[in-house]
Specification:
Layout: E1 11-13, H1 15-42, H2 51-56, H3 60-64, E2 72-74, E3 88-91, E4 94-97, H4 107-122, H5 132-136, H6 157-165, H7 174-177, H8 197-200, H9 206-218, H10 225-244, H11 263-295
Parallel strand pairs: 1-2
Antiparallel strand pairs: 2-4, 3-4
Helix pairs in contact: 4-11, 9-10, 9-11, 10-11
Protein name: 3-methyladenine DNA glycosylase
């Protein structure tokens, strides 16, 4: 470590060290990106494994790129390859991200994101939604209207509607709520809007925790690649539980259902929910620290 008069304490990485981190990141991420790209080449779709690439629109090639994050100086002549990105510059005898290159026009969005992350971290989590958001997205739809209609539903439409109507719908996440069918929206105890995201987001929500991956990649290349990958890993595990608790029958893909229509299934869902809430907090804290660093003078 050494201090710079213009930044926080710096970490200097010799080439063998940063190359090792770069290789480890790429190997980790390729276990996710390679199967996705192979399915794309075959024209196949997977409702669990492909979701993060399709919904969040962060290219596999971008996810594979390793970036060290702020205040890390990469030593060695080959570190100059990072100068292909305008956010890097020569610094302290090597190559480093230039935090000052973070666009001024994005600072308002960064302030908003920091407020959202802090509010979500501090707000008590809620564990009573039981994954009904996926059910509300197909509520009172005809089979050809169903979003993932390549996969069968576990119940006929009338029975599915009865299950939704028999339980309180408590979705707090705007980007999930906006996909509710029109008849399902009045059933929700909350009516989230984009303007109320900071007031409603809470870490018991599976989608709020999946979105940590979105916030990580939106700050690229300033986000350490390992943090982006950690957020992806959490989101991937959440997506599996999300779809297992959905009304879709994905058993032949190896995803046995979590029957949230039963007390036992709801208890199982809540157990997963609590575990994800706990896993999300260290990642959220790392993102908070990153946002604060990017906003520092």
């Amino acid at each position: 470590m050494q201090a710079s008069p213009h930044s926080a304490a710096l970490t200097l990485l010799a080439e063998p060290d940063w190359r090792a981190r770069q290789s480890a990141h790429e190997a980790r991420v390729r276990a996710w990106t390679d199967p996705h790209q192979a399915r794309q080449a075959r024209g196949e779709k997977h409702p669990v494994e492909d979701f993060l690439f399709e919904y969040y629109r962060f290219r596999p090639s971008w996810l594979r790129r390793w970036h060290p994050g702020p205040d890390v100086v990469l030593l060695g002549e080959s570190a100059r390859e990072f100068l292909r990105w305008p956010e890097y510059h020569e610094s302290d005898g090597g190559i480093a991200l230039n935090v000052a290159a973070f666009e001024a026009k994005r600072r308002d969005s960064l302030v908003w994101l920091l407020g959202l992350l802090r509010a979500t971290a501090e707000r008590p989590p809620m564990f009573a939604c039981f994954g009904l958001h996926e059910w509300a997205m197909v509520y009172r739809q005809t089979p050809d209207e169903v979003r993932h209609n390549a996969w069968p539903l576990r119940f006929p439409p009338d029975e599915l509607a009865r299950i939704v109507e028999a339980q309180p719908v408590r979705c707090s996440h705007f980007d999930a709520f906006r996909f509710f069918t029109p008849p399902a929206r009045p059933l929700n105890r909350l009516q989230p809007e984009r303007s109320t995201v900071t007031q409603l987001e809470q870490r018991g929500c599976l989608h709020a925790n999946m979105d940590l991956y979105k916030w990580a990649f939106k700050l690229a290349p300033f986000t350490p690649a390992e943090l982006t990958a950690d957020c992806f890993a959490l989101a991937r595990d959440i997506r599996e539980v999300d779809m297992r608790a959905s009304p879709y029958d994905l058993a032949r893909l190896g995803y046995p259902p979590i029957g949230i229509e039963t007390p036992e299934g709801r208890a199982t869902y809540e157990t997963h929910q609590r575990a994800f809430a706990d896993r999300s907090q260290p990642l959220r804290a790392r993102l908070i620290a990153l946002c604060a660093r990017l906003l520092a003078p």
